[in-house]
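Quick check before the chapter quiz. The format below is the same one you will see on the exam, so make sure you can read both the input and the output lines.
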Amino acid sequence: MEMTPDDTIVFVLAGFAINATILFTWIVMAILTIVSVLITRNLRPEVPPNRWRTTLEAIVLTIQGQIDEISARPDRRLLYFTGTLFLFIVTSNLLMIIPGWHSPTGSLSTTAALALAVLVAVPLFGISSRGIGGYLHSYLEPNVIMLPFNIISEFSRGISLAIRLYGNVMSGAVIGAILLGVAPFFFPVVMDLLGLLTGVIQAYIFAILATVYISSTTAPPDTQPESTTAKEQT
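Here is the expected output.
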């Protein structure tokens, strides 16, 4: 059994080996782009919304509501960033019910890239919100002695995000393979249903943690998000 889609080479393009991780990442990106274009192509006030547009608006409003509950200083750009993370991860995971699908989130390289995106976004949002001086000063809080610990904490967040998502996806794949060997005619249905549920939960937790980390940086020093500790323990 292949433990990661990185091991599956699909084809070679211009001398570069395209593995399943890259290929299915492109497919997810194409699906999200095409669906968004099709749903919003008639996005005008005089055009009544159809059920697809209503569904998309409900998803966006739900994500925005979650961000508003966490962030002390709501930022529209945070919706674009964490919303994209959520949609990419949940789409990758939900498509696992398709035979032959290799979820990109089952690769440590993908989860590490997503975590790296969060690590880069944290200082960018922090500098944009508090200025470069205010952001750098946050590493000295509550005193200068905490500087190395704050830096280590910043990087450990990214590692935690990557390992958490990768571990959840791969543990589900391993358990599914074991159950298929025990009862191949019954457990596939159960595992498909369980995969749908866990795929949504994994995407939700990743997006929420990313929102908490970014919000803790953009919030004023005296109004840190109250839910930070609780969310990190989820």
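If your answer matched, good. The CA atoms of residues 101 and 234 lie 28 Å apart.
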